[in-house]
Amino acid sequence: GENINICWSPDGQTIAVGNKDDVVTFIDAKTHRSKAEEQFKFEVNEISWNNDNNMFFLTNGNGCINILSYPELKPIQSINAHPSNCICIKFDPMGKYFATGSADALVSLWDVDELVCVRCFSRLDWPVRTLSFSHDGKMLASASEDHFIDIAEVETGEKLWEVQCESPTFTVAWHPKRPLLAFACDDKDGKYDSSREAGTVKLFGLP
């Protein structure tokens, strides 16, 4: 199956890759060899370790978050997070929360220790494709086919900013040290030269 998701372990020792056949392979970053492989019976979407490197999280097509122990890969818990396909997952740099985005257009914020949903962000109208926490864990950017990126205050859920876009957004990423958001949309830079179809990367900075 074609590979569709990839992530590093926080300690930098392992790369996890998920493919279209719902197989997740764990690759040793030093030897470049596979050290474990897990076949799942559900649609695996985004994958991520927790910040402590001892649990592995998957979002799935049934709206659940599956949690496995790491490195044993034994199932710990399955959380019914959303009524529809659970698409993306991100952990905040502080290790306090993680967020998931779903096809129901909701972003849910979860307490890492308690594994309970703390609040939901519901300003988007389309399936949430991409999420990113700011470096200090205070802001959460989320985006979809809506023509804006929602920037929320994590602790209150309030809207801090709405970044206008002319097309759907595929991916968002905060700068590791500054309040600067990079994002890529479904647009082509053909304004000046129609023979050149290049995607554009945009930056949005908060004062």
TrEMBL record:
Gene Ontology biological-process annotations: mRNA export from nucleus
Domain (Anaphase-promoting complex subunit 4-like WD40): residue spans on this chain: 125-175
WD repeats: 79-113
Keywords: Repeat, WD repeat
GO CC annotation: THO complex part of transcription export complex
UniProt record similarity statement: Belongs to the THOC3 family.
Record-given protein name: THOC3 protein
